[in-house]
Amino acid sequence: MFVSQKQKHIVETPDTGKWELAGYEAALPVTEKSNPITREIDKADPVQIVHLLKECDAEIFQEEDDTLVNYKRLYSASVLQTMMDVTKKVEAILKDPEHSLIILSGCGTSGRLAFLLATSFNKLLKGLHKNPSYAYIIAGGDKAILTSQEAPEDNPHLGVEALKRVCAGKKKVLFIGISCGLSAPFIAGQLDFCLNNLDVFTPVLVGFNPVSMARNEIIEGWHLTFRQVAEKMEEVQETRRAFILNPAVGPEGISGSSRMKGGSATKIILESLLLAAHKATSNNKEVTAKNLLDWMKTYEKVHKITYSQGKMIAAMVKQAGTSLEKMGRIYYIGWQTLGVMGIIDASECVPTFGTDFSDVRGFINKGYKEMANREGDLTSRGPEFEISHEDFMKNVLPDVTENDTVVFIFTLDDDLLEIEKLANQVKNKTPNLHAISHVTTGQYVSANIKKTFASVMSMTWPIVFFEYEGFFLQKFQRELSTKWILNAISTGGHILKGKIYFNHMIDLKVSNSKLFRRAVAILQRFTSRSPIICQEALLKSIYETDDLSDEIRNIKISTHTTLAATKFKVVPTALVLLTRNCSVAEAMSRIQAKPVVRDTIDRYLTAPGRKRTADQIEMHRDEENE
Ligand code: F1P
C-alpha cells in the first residue's frame, strides 16, 4: 500500500457515491457537483492524485444501485435499450450512404471528440472501400479543434446554420448532439431544428445529466431553454424518432471539467454503438444487448490496464508539476490519433486552467494531413495552429530547456527509427523526455528506445484475433487509455502548481454563460453569500469597478463574458472582494501579488478560527437571508 499513515485520510474516501443521495448539492446538476472522492485532491501528492482520478473514473462503469433509484447508469437496461435503438438507425444510414449522413456535433471537448469519431469511422469505411457516412460539427469551426472558442457555444443560431451547411442534399440524417452538461445552446438549437424536421432528421442527445437537470436558463436571442428542448426530445423518444443517451457517470474529478469523465464516457458510448452497428452491417446480423454490453465491458479493462501503471503515471504527473512550477512547458509528441489525443488534452488546458497556449502543446506526425480535418491546413492562422512534428523541431525545440517536459506517445507499429531520431534531438535539450508506448502482447520496446527516454510507460494490449472492427476497437481503447494518462498529467500538474482549491478550478476563464454560472456557484460555495451578492462581486471584478451601475447590472451575460474572457483571475479577485470587503483595486493587487492562487485563496478563506471546509452550501439562499 502506497499510502503513508499521515495522509491516509486523503485517499480513503468514505463519501464515495454520496453524490447520488437526493439532497447532495441539490441545486447543481450531476456534471457540476463536486465529487466527494476528490474533495481533498488539492492537497494530495502525485501518487494519491492518480489514485483519486482512478477511483473517480471507475464510477463511469458503476452499476445502478437498487437501493438508490436516482440515476440510471451506463449499464442500465434503459440506456442499453436506447443504444440498441440508435444502433439500428446507424445501420439504416450505412446502407444508404449516398442519401444519408451521420453527424456528430459538440462544443469544446465534445466537438473535438465529434471530430475524432467522425474521421475515425470514415477511415473504417474507407478501409472497406466504402464512401464516408460521417461528418462532424464543432462550435467555432476547425480552429476550435485546437484552440478554445467558448463564445459560439452560446449561440443556437450558429448551431443551426452549421447543421444546415453540413447536411445539404441529404435525405436522412442521424444527428448526434453531444453536450455533457445538457447545457450548450449551440446543441440545443440543432436538436430543436431536427425536432422540427423529423422527416429528415433523427436527433440523438448524448450527455450525463438527467433531463430534469438539463440547463433551464433562458438562452439569449432564443425562445427555448436546453431543458425544454430535452423534454421535447423525451416526448418524441416515445415514438422512437428521437433518443436521449444520458446515464449519470458521477461528478468530475475537478468540478465541472467535463473534458474528463464526460469526454471518456462519450467515447465509450458512441464507439461501442457505432462499432456494433458496423459489425452488424458487415455480418448481416442483428445487434443484441449482449453484443453491446460486451463491447462496453472491454472498456472497463482499459481502465484496469491503464491505472495498473499508476506509479508510472504519478511519476509523470510529478514531472509535469515540477515543469509547470518552474514556468516550464509540457509538450506531447504523438503519432496518428494518439497525436490527436495530445492535441486535445493540450488545447483544453487554456480554458480549464487559464494557461497560455504555449504552456501545454500537442504535435502530430504529418500535421494536418494526419488530422484530416475538413478545413485543411490552418498553420497560417498563427503559432498555436502549428501542430506538426516539423513545426515542433523547427520552431519550438530550439527554445526547449531542462525545465520542460516532453512526452512521446506512440505504438510499436509506428516508425520507430523516426521516433528514436526525434527523441535523440529532444534529449539534447531536456533530460525530462518520457514515452507512453502501446504494445501488443508479445511485442517489446527495444533497448535502443528504452535508453533514449528517461522513462518508458509501456501499455500492453491483448492480440486482436477477430475481425476488422476489432482492430478499430483496440485503436479506440489505446486512445482512451492515452486520454486518461494525459488528463492525469495535465490535471495533476496543474494541481501541483496550485491551480485547484479543494476540487474546484477557482481561476476559471469566465468565457461563456455556463462558465459565468459556474463562477457564481463557486463564489457561493466558498463564501456562503447569496447568488446575487456573488454575481455583483463577479461583475465588479470583471468591470474593475467598486460602483456597479444599473447599466452594467442589466447588460446581457454575453457582454459580461466577452469582457471577462480578456481578463485574468476574475474569480479569485471576486473571492477576495467578498471575504475582505475591500476595493476592487486592493483585491486585484492582493491576488496579483501571489503567484499561487490556491495559497492566496486559502489564506483568505481560512482566517484564524475558521476550518478549511468545502462543505456543501445551500446554493439558492435568498437575498433577504443575507
Ligand atoms: C462543452 C464545453 C467543455 C469545455 C468547457 C466549456 O461542454 O466546451 O468541453 O471543457 O467546460 O464547455 P458540454 O456542452 O459538453 O457540457
Give a quick summary of the entry.
The chain is built from 24 helices and 12 strands.
Briefly note the structural class of the backbone: alpha/beta
From the spread of the alpha carbons, the general shape counts as globular
Query: What ligand species are in this complex?
Result: 1-O-phosphono-beta-D-fructopyranose
| Euclidean distance between termini CA atoms | 47 Å
List keywords for this structure.
alpha/beta; 10% strand; 12 strands; disordered N terminus; globular; binds 1-O-phosphono-beta-D-fructopyranose; single chain; five-stranded parallel sheet; disordered C terminus; 48% helix; 626 residues
Note down, in words, how this protein is organized:
By secondary structure, this protein is of the alpha/beta class. It is 48% helix and 10% strand. The chain is built from 24 helices and 12 strands. Helix 4 (108-127) packs parallel to helix 9 (261-283). It is globular and about 70 Å long. It starts with 7 loop residues before the first helix and ends in a 21-residue tail after the last helix. Residues 1-11 and 616-626 have low confidence and may be disordered. 1-O-phosphono-beta-D-fructopyranose (F1P) is lined by residues 106-110, 150, 153, 178-181, 183-184, 258-259, 262, 348, 351, 514.
